[in-house]
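Quick one: structure tokens for this chain, please?
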Amino acid sequence: MRHLHFTQSLEPLNGGGLGSSAVALHRQMRSSGLKSLLCATHGGVPQCPVEDAVEFARIKPDALYFSPALKRQAQKLVGDADVLHGHGLYVGTNFIFGREARRQSKPLVYHTHGFFEPWILHRSVWKKKLAHWVFEDANFKSVRLWRALTSKEAAQVRAQGIKTPIVVIPNGLRFEDFPRPADPMGGINTPWIENLTKTGPRVLFLGRIHPKKGLDLLLQAWASLGPDRKNWQLVIAGPDENGHLQHVRDLSRSLGLSERIWFTGPVTGSIKNQLLHSADLFVLPSYSEGFSMSLLEAMACEVPVVATRACNFPEVSASGAGWECDPELDSLTDTLRQALQAGETERKERGQKGCRLVETQYAWPALAARLVEACETYC
């Protein structure tokens, strides 16, 4: 069976978790001996993160993720595939590949990646309605299999009136992508800070600088901690989306935190790996997540985590890998205080439990095999 994956972008800012998840699944399929091709658009510089990934230049506005070059090649690309995997919704890549899949009667699998989360559904409602009218209604009717990342997301799919089969398979990772650095506590050369050094125990946020990530909650909670955060270093890593970074910086200044927060900019590869291994605590204060890769990556590096329940990862508290809270100021503040006051030994033990959880339940080989089996059944 020949697989073709498509998503809006593989760029860290434009593609985010969608792109990285599509890359990881595509890579695992190839390493398992399957034929797999990954297609996406780019805004100027192809990312080339993996073999057999083809990126087509897109036109403005970026939010459409529409590429005339991709449209011209779609007939051949779809013709050479046995099953198509759409990662994400409502963009030009879905319009192009969905229409061609229907024209050639090729099976379509949709990977929703949190797009039916209430917080997401309530944003840009008219644009989503337009996309449904133009192409997604037709795509939804032709989808043979839906992949949900969690049982909660499967229920959200059903809430859309979808009767098609659903398989629940979370995202995964490869441990070989996160080797422990020779000097995990050494200085790190990040895009915005050269030789970032540890001045004390480190709390790390890693993700897009976007309103849904809850950085306003994090900064307010951090300010409320007062003496409890003494000597702790808060590092915020990730690309700015739609200028939200300026709001975050302004808020940090108004709260008197400018000298106690370090912004690194977007980090990838070995720099991201160094940063993760240097952390003593990872925090994800999101208002909405489908399934967070950053949580998996932190746990793979034996870092205990603080996550909101909106991250849809109850295993964090169930496994003892960290602490969960509500996406509200008081809840986040109290939970962060508990995590900071926990002894170093407890945090280390929680980090080890998280690593074992990822190793036993979220390694890509087994997850990809389950998806391939589902494709063979329904496609």
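The mean pLDDT is 94.
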